[in-house]
Design brief:
The chain has 4 helices and 8 strands. The chain is α+β, with helices and mostly antiparallel strands. Strands 3-1-2-8 form a 4-stranded antiparallel β-sheet, with helices on one face. The protein has a 4-stranded antiparallel β-sheet with strand order 5-6-4-7, with helices on one face. Helix content is 33%, strand content 31%.
Amino acid sequence: VTYELYGHGGEGILALALTDNKNRTASFMRIATQKRGGVIASPGSVSYNFQQKGTLYVPKDSVEEDALFLLATDLGAEDFLVEEEGYLLLVPAESLYSLKEALDEEGICSEPSLEFLPKTTVKCGKEEQEANEALIDFLDADEDIHRIYHNMAL
């Protein structure tokens, strides 16, 4: 179940829940917005600001950067990000596992996942950012909430 919320300052929040009781989770979402602020939005009003992408995380010790970059671009990766301990490949969601299999065939281990990435970010003041972080932390504390995505500029 996906819940869409507006946080403080117009920030969009997607909360993905894996639950066996939708009523309990819906009640928790209402309690969260009452205690920490924010508004539960109607379906589609927040999610249109996000795009689903596949991500593949490759540890730096498993391959050289140049070789991975060439292979990833040949296989259709949309973006290649260098992080402290590894490389992050952004791919279309529908081709995530075909790219994962191609990397496996080359002997490159990777960790795949599907993410919702914001199309645009919202700048918040310090007070709004702290309030949004408190709301996100409150949501994250619930065992039914699986993933939380937001478009707040950090």
